[in-house]
Amino acid sequence: MRQNSTAPRNNKLKPSSNLIMNGSVRVRVIRTLLAIQNGQSLSSVLDPLLNSLHDGDKGFAHALLLTTLRQWHALARLLDSLADNPIDEVEVRTTIQVGLVQLLYLEVADHAAIHETVEAAKEIEFAHSTGLVNAILRKVAKNPSKFRKKCDKKHSLPNWLAYQLKQDWSEQYDELTQGLRHPAPMFLRVNSAVTSVEDYQHALDGAEIDADIVELTTGFKVASSSGSATSTTLSIKGLRLHQSTAVNALPDFALGTASVQDMHAQLAAPIINKALIAKLIAEKSDTENTNNEIHILDACAAPGGKLAHWLELISANDESSLFHVKQDNNEISSETSPAITDIKVTAIDNEAPRIERIRENLQRLNLSQHDLQQANNSIALNIVCADATRWQYGKNKKAATNEPVFDAILLDSPCTATGVIRRHPDISILRTEEDIEQTALLQADILHNLWPQLKAGGYLLYVTCSILKQENVEQMQDFITHHNDAVVIEFTDDCNWGIEQAIGRQCLPIDSASGDGFYYALLQKTAE
User: Residue 304 — φ and ψ, nearest 5°?
Assistant: First the structure.
């Protein structure tokens, strides 16, 4: 039987719009945590918190907030075991949990942690709870190592999610649930059109920023022009920093030389780009193929990291460029190579603020439409605010049918984001068990809408940052059951990332690369 979290849900919280950023550092963190429990995301409340503080307090506030979120459910269970009677007031529970984090994880001096937390209870107008707050924190302060071990013994996830992970990943369960409690490393993607990974690592060394090169190898089977299946491989290099660093400290970051992107997320653009090149190569012997234009789609594109990576590859002066197609190490001759003269890139997302975020990121990387036109007028970029469940290229949203127009589609599908809990620990509070089913239905709607718009022979790369099989391999199994023209492209043993699934591969945030939890499945559309 599935169990719900022991922490009670409070329906009497003040509206999140009433978030007030004043008072002591601890009070501001408590109010921020209350806003998150009331439905606001960490990304929406973190900057207001930090911007309200003096520089000297920002580090402590950030550590206190993030650590409390990462240990939230374990702290809730510990609190329940410490209290003689149930504590129903979410403000009081939150205040005590903030105190516990100081004692157990941040090594704040006992007297400071207890006194300041008790004062915080008064400041948020819960003075009646000060005796309880004081008693529980003093009890823990007498033997913090004992209570730290108790807190660390099990997972720090809502019980419904822990149950589901046990079902999906029984062999990896213990390592996985513990791994999700810790911060994720910071990765950089280097713009290969500007510099090499090795040269940028040297630049980081000069800035006294330590980083290791991480290399992921990917292999998959594609159809050749003769109809047989051949294997293709590619290598992706990124940088893993030893310590997270402010982006303004990174060499030439403002000039677009590097981007912050998880290592496993860096697989997406190279895979779909390589598959698209394979499609062009397979078509090269078709003498009737006079199409000099290709059209690609990045669906659900915000905040634009994967789109930017794909544009970097397209415009690079190497074998990854669609203007310079190669097969293995042999360049295709101009007599047989499809002459690509125009590339249309369409990117969609359904929220205007997220569209603006895409534009901002592309502008920093010198990949806006204006930049692309100046560098190469053969690349046309169009960014559209649209609902991927209904949007159809070139038609209004009421159109009853759609037509195949895209040679390749990158679908970074909406998901519960359970694979990035290390970076966004608020997910474990905000997500509910019902979200899985609703998200899976949304994913299916998007797939069913986009698939008819893919040309025969074209590829669709399905990506999520989830570690739940219902959103990943099970979604793909259901999709191919209902689409006879969908062929699964198998990843080969050349891959040094992820776990092989019945369809696709699943990255878990516990492998040697230390990347986030991502799922990848590559599909090709056959002629009907």
Answer: 105, 5
Task: Report the first-to-last Cα separation within the chain, whole angstroms.
Answer: 45
Q: Which residues pair with 239 in a beta bridge?
A: 188, 213
Determine contact, residues 251/194, Cβ cutoff 8 Å: no
Q: Strand pairing partners for 506?
A: 499, 519
Q: For 124, left (φ over 0), alpha (ψ -120 to 50), or beta?
A: alpha
Q: 456 and 404 in contact (C-beta within 8 Å)?
A: yes
Residues acting as catalytic residues: 465
CA atoms within 13 A on the CB side of 311: 32
Using the predicted structure, report yes or no on whether residue 156 has a pLDDT greater than 50.
yes
pLDDT more than 90, % of the chain: 78
Phi, psi of 82 (to 5 degrees): -90, -25
410: phi then psi, degrees, rounded to nearest 5: -105, 115
8 Å CB contact between 144 and 102:
no
Specify the pLDDT at position 193. Answer: 83
**CA angle (401 as vertex; 400, 405 as ends), nearest 5:** 145
Tell me how far apart the alpha carbons of residues 41 and 38 are, in angstroms, rounded to a whole number: 9
**In whole angstroms, what is the distance from residue 479 CA to residue 481 CA?**
5
> What are the residues whose beta carbons fall under 8 Å from the beta carbon of 204, sequence distance 6 or more?
210, 211, 239, 241, 250, 251
Q: Residues 495-522: pLDDT tens digits?
A: 999 999 999 999 999 998 999 999 999 9
CB 323, CB 329: distance < 8 Å: no
Tokens 């993030």 locate to 66
In angstroms, rounded to a whole number, what is the distance separating the alpha carbons of residues 53 and 95?
19
* pLDDT for res 332: 38
- Closest-CA residue to 413 (of 458, 352, 358, 349): 349
Q: Taking a C-beta distance cutoff of 8 angstroms, is the pair 61, 53 a contact? A: yes
Tens-place pLDDT, residues 176-207: 999 999 999 999 999 988 899 999 999 999 99
Q: Are 136 and 118 in contact (CB under 8 A)?
A: no
Strand-strand pairing, 258-260 and 187-190: antiparallel
- From residue 406, alpha-carbon distances to 322, 336, 386, 455, 458 in Å are 15, 22, 17, 6, 7
Helices (H) and strands (E) in the chain — how many of each?
Answer: 18, 15
Smallest CA-to-CA distance from 72 within 426, 376, 347 is with 426
Q: Strand 342-349 relative to strand 379-385: parallel, antiparallel, unpaired? A: parallel
- Local confidence band at 286 (pLDDT 50, 70, 90 cut-offs): low
Strand partners, 381: 345
Angle separating helix axes 72-82 and 90-104, nearest 10 degrees: 100
Q: CA separation (Å) from 354 to 204, 296, 382, 383? A: 30, 20, 15, 11
